[in-house]
Design brief:
Chain A: It is a multi-pass membrane protein. The complex is a heterodimer of chains A (365) and B (372). Chain A is built from 14 helices and no strands. With 365 residues, chain A is mostly helical. In chain A, helix 5 packs parallel to helix 7, helix 12 crosses helix 13 and helix 13 crosses helix 14. Chain B has 2 domains: 171 residues, Rossmann fold, CATH 3.40.50.2300; 181 residues, 3-Layer(aba) Sandwich (Rossmann fold). In chain B, helix 3 crosses helix 10. Classes of the chains: A mainly alpha (365), B alpha/beta (372).
Chain lengths: 365, 372
């Protein structure tokens, strides 16, 4: 571990640009944390009587080892990119939003309810559906921001509770007023017309939601790092009092960041409905909103870092089946690995910073 | 009545399916499968395979299929009804050479099984749940299901003999036809013993809600119910909670007697090894896929748990006698005159609905004697 950090520090010294240095430092920390997680998970596997190398070989094979594996990984990563943004954007305003699942459900439901009536629009049907999904998700998480700014409701608790309300509302509508009477034992909204379905990227077996996810992350990066609005958000999030003193609308910025994050998660719900399920039903509550929290934290709340992180988490999920079938490992194995990843990232950041500082202090300049 | 016409046609259709599976025709699959008597079969579960419930019932049958000569069995648990199951099916086919797949969760069929089946016309997909329809769904897909309401009727007879408060409790997931049919059969079984018995139902809203299931079981016991049963994915919580509260319990899906040896009366269990064997044999011999197969106690799709010590000798004798009648085909559960719990006649006098009747699959009423 310390060897990794030491070489990273050496690289940092050579780097002339401070921004590059900061990026490299973050990268070194993340890579070190991933290595730590891999070691811990390996020890766990040995303790459980398995060969860690065989497990890692299968993880690689299932996640990135073939065209099929990549397809599998990309499909699982696509919704996580959008749900991670639902954590990252509010985090720039200093808020910890963990209820993205509610926005996924609301977005998916709004898109399904609207899409049923858009059969006549042809290829244009997807646009209003996407807007409806983003709007529903945006309003839902925007409400979290509003409650926080106007009523002082803690946003982590507020968003989590609203996710439960969303799930209940979703269930009520899908099993009640919006139910397709023909869906007897699997209550669903009516099947979407063909025009309202999102297809695959030419011959790839991966739906177009992947492109939307990547674009959203890039746009979020530009918004945060290359616009005055993003700068204002950073100031407001970093030090709200200073922000207010220089006249920034701190509260409104936070609500807007929540709304944008919610819109991304709502879009994820719309894509799931339009590309995968073809209707809204309880299968939409697959936990993408919660997995997005993991992705966002591993990506250290950086929109561009979401992309490789989503691939990593998607890949772990994609290879889980192979671990079950080939090695007879229980499904929970993958959860253990994800847990190690999450904890290592959280623990590693301060740990590596402390180590790096100590090394810097010891070496005379 | 249009309903009875439909049921007759389905009965003929079932006969044709059975006949078809017996006659080994050279179908398009025979080429792929005739080479050697080997078959790779994939089993996919929506929850953990040791859940004492729905998934365990499938896994127990899969374990028996695994022992058959020439069979390679693949298993995956906790596979969500999303792209996850599509990719699991494809992965079983692409990486492990699966030729027959059992996606066992109801929600897997539309759109997931249908999408993957279209991509792999040479692979067979046998879905559990009974959604396949002739002319609508492809021939390399099919459905199998069991009339487990027969088991719940027997549970009801056992409960009717064991209950002292004359109040039974039912913890149910969702108010959908499958579940309502079980609640009704359970209640009717109990009321065949004593017409003054009533059943209280609590819906938890979803298939796996352990906390709500515990709350519901506690609440039912608080309301005076002394025999509980359920229809949720894993009956573990309901069985354990009932036993802890001193109530008796009837099992569902799999055998839960180990969880409450003293409180367990009997249980309604799936016996999936019957349809599994039919489908595996057809695939191995290259016969056309049996697309729509169903059965109850008589056909070996359903079984009952051994009697627990809490059920009296008289109670055991009564359940066994009812079971014999079912096995002989001499008992129709749903027959008129039958009223629902709002006093409305749901089956007219003189009408008998056979288990195959499609009217039963759209059930949207609770029988007289059910409160909830």
């Amino acid at each position: 571990m310390s060897a990794t950090s030491a070489s990273a520090v050496a690289v940092l010294r050579a780097a002339p640009d401070p921004r590059l240095a900061a990026a490299l430092r973050a990268l070194a920390g993340t890579v070190g944390a991933l290595a730590l997680a891999a070691l811990l998970f390996g020890a766990f596997l040995v303790a459980a009587g398995h060969d860690p190398l065989a497990v890692y070989a299968l993880l690689w094979k299932g996640a990135f080892g073939s065209a099929f594996a990549w397809q599998n990984t990309l499909l699982r990563a696509a919704p996580l990119m959008l749900t991670a943004l639902c954590v990252v954007l509010p985090a720039r305003a200093g808020l910890i939003v963990i209820g993205g699942e509610g926005a996924v459900l609301m977005g998916g439901l709004a898109a399904a309810a609207l899409g049923v009536h858009l059969g006549g629009l042809g290829g244009m049907a997807l646009l209003p559906m996407a807007l409806a999904g983003a709007l529903a998700g945006g309003v839902w998480i925007g409400l979290v921001g509003l409650l926080r700014e106007r009523r002082g409701v803690n946003e982590a608790i507020g968003s989590l509770l609203l996710a439960y309300i969303a799930a209940a509302l979703f269930k009520h509508l899908v099993e009640g007023p919006l139910r397709d009477p023909a869906s007897l034992n699997k209550p669903s909204t009516p099947a979407l017309p063909d025009a309202a379905r999102l297809g695959e990227l030419a011959g790839s077996g991966v739906h177009a939601g992947l492109v939307i996810g990547v674009l959203a992350c890039v746009l979020a990066h530009l918004l945060i790092h290359h616009t005055p609005w993003g700068f204002g958000l950073k100031v407001a999030g970093g030090n709200p009092r200073a922000g207010r003193m220089v006249g920034l609308p701190v509260g409104r910025l936070a609500i807007a960041a929540c709304g944008l994050g919610g819109a991304a998660a709502g879009l994820a719900g719309m894509i799931e409905v339009a590309a995968v399920h073809g209707a809204a039903n309880s299968a939409l509550a697959a936990g993408y909103g919660y997995a997005g929290i993991l992705v966002a934290f591993v990506a250290r709340q950086q929109p561009l870092a979401i992309l490789p992180t989503a691939l990593l988490v998607g890949g772990v999920a994609a290879s889980g089946g192979l671990l079950q079938r080939r090695l007879g490992l229980p499904d929970a194995t993958v959860n253990v690995l994800q847990g190690f990843l999450f904890l290592s990232i959280l623990v590693a950041e301060p740990l590596f910073q402390a180590v790096a500082q100590r090394i810097r202090r010891r070496r005379p300049r | 009545m249009s309903e009875s016409r439909l049921s007759v046609s389905r009965r003929h259709f079932l006969q044709a399916v059975v006949a078809g599976s017996l006659v080994s025709l050279a179908g398009p699959w025979s080429r792929a499968l005739a080479a050697g008597d080997k078959l790779t079969v994939g089993f996919i579960y929506v929850g953990p395979r040791d859940d004492y419930g729905y998934n365990q019932a499938h896994a127990e049958a899969a374990a028996q299929i695994r022992k058959l000569p020439g069979i390679t069995a693949l298993e995956e648990e906790n596979v969500a009804e999303t792209v996850a199951v599509q990719k699991t099916m494809e992965s079983m086919i692409e990486l492990d050479g699966a030729q027959l797949i059992f996606p066992t969760s109801f929600g897997y069929f539309d759109p997931h099984v249908l999408k993957v089946a279209a991509k792999y016309p040479g692979v067979r997909f046998a879905h559990c749940g009974g959604l396949w329809r002739e002319g609508v769904h492809p021939k390399n897909t099919g459905s199998f299901f069991g009339y487990i309401d027969e088991g719940q009727y027997l549970n009801g007879v056992a409960a009717g003999h064991a209950s002292k408060t004359r109040k039974l409790g039912f913890v149910a997931a969702k108010p959908i036809p499958q579940v309502l049919r079980n609640i009704n059969a359970f209640t009717m079984g109990a009321r065949s013993v004593d017409p003054s018995i009533t059943t209280r139902v609590i819906f938890t809203g979803d298939w796996a809600m352990p906390v709500k299931e515990a709350e519901a079981a506690n609440s039912l016991v608080d309301q005076g119910a002394d025999v509980l049963t359920c229809h949720v994915d894993s009956p573990k919580v309901v069985v354990e909670t009932a036993a802890r509260r001193g109530a008796m319990v009837c099992g569902y899906h799999a055998d839960q007697s180990a969880l409450a040896p003293q409180a367990y009366l009997t249980g309604a269990q799936w016996n999936w090894v019957t349809p599994y064997t039919t489908l595996v044999q057809a695939a191995m011999s290259g016969a056309p896929m049996p697309n729509f197969i169903r059965g109850g106690l008589r056909e070996g799709y359903i079984k009952t748990s051994p009697y627990g010590p809490a059920l009296s000798a008289a109670g055991q004798a009564a359940v066994s006698a009812t079971k014999e009648k079912m096995l002989a085909g001499a008992l129709t559960i749903f027959k008129g005159p039958l009223a629902d719990n709002k006093g409305r006649t749901v089956i007219a006098a003189g009408v008998e609905l056979a288990q195959t009747d499609v009217a039963l699959e759209a059930m949207d009423w609770l029988v007289e004697g059910v409160q909830g």
